[in-house]
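#struct-queue
[09:14] JT: dropping the first one here, sequence first, then the structure tokens:
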Amino acid sequence: MVRGGGKITVKHIFIFLIFCFVNHAQTDNSMGNLIHVNAHQNNIDYSDTLGSWQNGINDIYSGYYDIVMTDSSKFLLRNNDYSPEQLIGFHKMELENIQTGERQEFSYFDASDQVGLFDLQPNTYRIQKGTWLFDDVSGNGFLSNGDSLYKTDISTGNYLYHICGEVDSSQIILWNDNHVLKYFKINLHDSPAIDTLQGKRLNFSAQDKIVHIEKYDGNHYFLQMENDLNLFAFEADSFRYIKTVLPDKYFQNFIFREDKLYAWDNGTLFKYNLSLTDTVFNEGTKLLEGDIFVDYLFGYAVKIDSNGLQLFNIKTEMTEKRWELSGSNYFFKPIMSYPDIYIHNTTTVTSIVKKEQYISRDASLDIYPNPFNASVTFRVKNRSSKNALLKIYSTSGALIEKINLSRTDRYVWKPRNLASGVYIAELVDGKYVIYNKIHYLK
């Protein structure tokens, strides 16, 4: 599975520096640390802080964007941008050990660097024997070994450019072979270093730009290439094109399971259903959008905004928990390796108020009819609190309506100015919570 932040080109870097210059005087200068939230626990120790970030202090912008797990250790991925007014800056990426705080640089380039042909930000790749991190400018990377990460020594002039995915227990990689980019099938599982290229060259050119490979079934694979998702067969160490299954889409982060494609792109989490009759994906559904982060296995997503922190179960398509926050900085997205969630917090405010909500085993929420047209009736049974609240949310987490049920167990809801689709009904019964989907059909 590929984890990355999208395409970065020299043009993008220059635009980013211009943006920083224009907005320099308007920057919300702030700094702080990370606070750890465990999704399994009901109490949060907000003194459990680590790391440091800053937004515009002395022209430095630094923050955290991903987590790497080894056998017994966790590493945060941290980026640092220096963007002064004279537009001569640099971009640096580091690994930070959560336990020790030690940092190691794994990527560096300044405004004058020429980013390579593939134009990809350094990504995180997890393969069976460990985690590879690499820089598409220098070709160096990190590989996990037990509970530590160590830097690979990939030979100068011939280096790893991009890991596309796994096929037949080997990886399909883009490799700089004597200054020419070529695709190869190679085993990286037991390779702490790559000194010589030993693998099968594939029938692709660098211009094909294979971003990610995901298995469909047997010897069939989905390949994200340029702006289309295509279906290929892999036979005799060669790919054979079959068809385009999702045109005009570009995803670097996605997973395929149970005939569904889950993709995270530009702050939106999508779901696409595969049509088994003609093997194409139907129109996508937005599950969540905003400042979100999706965990590696696409099991959960977290979203942060002015309403707090939201934990979203991707499989059930429901919000499981919410936290009210104060002192959090919404300039940065939260990061997660479930059940561990990290949020950027200011140093001046350290309070976090947890909504202790548990799935109720006694109370129930009857909804009828469902699907509905003009109105729907909610009926609460076996409530434990007199001050129950009924909340209606969109699937993206936006609160649509809040109803006080302190004096009644029955409520008829009539949507106003809403589009047809799926909505989430949340019953807050004291410290218990119940979620149900409702289907509105105009």
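[09:21] JT: and here's the second one, same format:
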Amino acid sequence: MATIKAFNGIRYAGKNITKEICPPYDVISSEEKSKLKKASKHNMVQLELSDASKTRNKYAQANFLFKQWLSDGNLIRDEKPALYFYEQVFKDHGKKMTRRGFFTALKLENPHGGAVKAHEKTLAKPKADRLSLLKAVKANLSPIFLLFNDDKKKIVSICKNIAKIKPSATATDKEGTFHKLWVISDEKIIADVTKTLAAKKTFIADGHHRYETAWNYMQYMKSKDKNFSDKKEYGYVLAYLCPMEDPGISIWPTHRVIEAPSHIEENIEKFFNVLPQSAFNKMQNSKIQPVMIFKDGKYRTLTVKNPALLKKAMPDRCSAYRNLGVSILHSILIPEVPADRYVYVKSEKEAVLLAKKTKKIAILVPATPVEAIKEIALNNETMPQKSTYFFPKLASGIIIHSV
């Protein structure tokens, strides 16, 4: 079961940290990075995506800046161990929503087993990059995002009550999301939350690469620390935990753009019913999800002709995995195409515009339901990359965990 603890967080000294926070490192373009650096010389992007100096490589430079910011008081370390409650107020396709959870130190477990369940495959290159940064800075600069069952809504209630008091820090990002942070060192609240989570399994929503990197760092420390113990801070990772029952959970799909494979029309004719574009939105909540293809200026909604095809194409997968549009795409419509061949796009409109511009095809998929993520993770299965997009992303720079 999940083991969490309060920790002495490192955070920005200011109350309004709008100019200091940044998005997760893997969604920051070079243009946005420049804008963030101009916003503040202490913006977290300076650590997450540091640039080499004349005398230091980019990882050593990140460490240099981190220590400097601590020394000059731009970053402060809390004296008391705390849990850090976090709220994001945002608009999802015009609807105002609020998502609440908390930051904690989560005990690391083998990514391929244990109480922390993953659902997506990872790539070696991003993990190597993040491990080099972690070795240099010795801190989790950004969190992993996990979900857990809170069927009695105990944590939902605690989060709601804490949200009534004045926050310790606030920020507004470029997408208009309003971030609030509360530093809670109350021993009773910490004990209640810790006890509740001790009976729970957790599911990684976002941050699979960071979780595996933290695990790899702990293995690295086994060879470096003569007094190694997984109870030390490197045995934990910075985690944001959100109840599955929170009303603010929003999962967006991630669409694909790719050069049309030569056999795609043959596969469509053989395995799929072809329906009008309008059927796609109507059928998104179906047990077996549809996919939609934009090719040669036309939209087609595709549904699997025979459900038995799903088991044949994905024999070792649970039904929750097989029924997803993204799984049908990668296992039946366009099987055996490497993940790096696709361009991944958040909105349907952007995907179609890119397909037109590059003379490729766009494949649109429905969002993955949170219940499917849970079932797939409990079966120790991993989904194709970029199967989920939790909106909004967690900001980097809200809280830091030293290891």
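[09:30] RK: nice, looked through the second one.
[09:31] RK: Residues 76 and 197 are 28 Å apart (CA to CA).
[09:31] JT: good to know. The radius of gyration is 22 Å.
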